[in-house]
Here is the input.
Amino acid sequence: MILDSFRLDGKVAIITGARTGIGQGIALAMAEAGADVVGVGNKPMPEIAEQIRALGRGFTEISAYLTRPCPELYDRVISGTLNAYGRVDILVNNAGIIRRCDAIDFNETDWDDVMNINLKTLFFLSQAAARQMVKQQSGGKIVNIASMLSYQGGIRVPSYTASKSGVMGLTRLLANEWAKYGINVNAIAPGYIDTNNTEALKKDPVRSAEILGRIPAGRWGTPRDMAGTAVFLASEASSYMQGFTVAVDGGWLAR
Here is the structure.
């Protein structure tokens, strides 16, 4: 039956930045679809752990500072997952940060911090996960979280725009190289979602009104709005999708 191809029973999903926002929404959706979940982040995640375990699924937390990419970090995430569940089937590269400042005044520290977590960690954690998937000889799914600024320039977020443009490019490249191993690499480009990263925008009455006025759906998105697309890209239902970035944006790009 077609709905069975969306199930994730017996799968193990690593999700970075699973504590809040989009990552939390995706983590819960993966568990609802049947997967055991590994949440990666630098702070405890009791809320999502409780919700996932209440569904009868496993949840393991791995503490990691993703803004400090290094081989030890990637190895710890993969080895921690293997110790808990014995395999890696899905990686969701969700963790990300943003820094806002006019480009003419933007500093190097903010550039490096954003690029480290949004792009460098994404690549090398994908590499580590793919090596394990190849070793398992059972394929796998990598889902990257891109952005509307993978398509557009934006304003006052130069490192974020550069990193998210890079995410779209890496999604294509990794799909090209790893499809032969049965690994699907795709991405989701969320629109304006009500999360910690967009809190400042939403609190600005002028900017918030400008944003809302361009969204055909007439509302900001929620982390739950990402759930269906994430499960689809992590499941067998998307087995012939490779290198594509799906916009889930309330119609923002169609405007």
Notes: The CA atoms of residues 192 and 220 lie 6 Å apart. The beta strands are 12-16, 36-41, 59-63, 90-93, 140-145, 183-190, 245-248. The first helix runs from residue 21 to 32. DSSP finds eight helices and seven strands in the chain.
